Amino acid sequence: MSKHSQAYMQILDCVRRAGRLMLKEEEPEIAVKGANDFVTARDREIQDFLIRELSGLFPSAFFFAEEKENFELPDTEGFIIDPIDGTTNFMNGFPCCAVCVARVRQRQLVDSFIYNPFREEMFTAEAGRGAWLNEQPLHVVSRPPSRAICLIEDSWKADRIVLRRFFASARCIGSAELGIAYVACGRAGVKISKLLHIWDYAAGTLIAREAGALVLDPDGQDAQLTEPGRVVVCCPSCRDAALQALREAEAAWKS
Prior knowledge:
By secondary structure, the chain is α+β, with helices and mostly antiparallel strands. Helices cover 31% and strands 26% of the residues.
């Protein structure tokens, strides 16, 4: 295992402790934010915990997080947080959800953490140093599109009809960040998203890139941290198919 920075190790510990809060047995209160959009008391508890703990370690840091009011992403050092990515999965007992934290400096990703405590899987990355799954080096797996799984956000019929022409399967797992991490570790070949908030893809972006995957905008350029964001994450061998599939899927969404 490579030697990590002190900051990395401190954040890793905070994320792991935050993830354990997801394992509490009592049912959390659930509130509705919008159509098919929920928040639980556990989301807020985990977010408050992370902000409190990380503020103690990084007193001048900003926090851009899902369950708080946010403005433009600052140019200083801070954190992008999704306390539970996959809230609907979480509140139904489906163990595909994760605590996600990315540290940024001048809008550039420094290190990232995606932790699913139900599977005891911690995906991490440090800029320029690599990506890891439970501290084992992480490398993307390139497959031909005809053998690759394509992960999507919404299991609309139009998406599936279009995408199945390009890939072996198109499916929705209900967690954007875990979907990106799964491309990074070879469980999927492509992750196509419509519109995502920064906290839905920031942590996964660094992990995927450090593992050798591509994180692109719809024009095929390196995706930037924008709000909202539209990203295509793929292994290199699926790049052309992923971008063409996105263009055709977008036409289906609009029809």
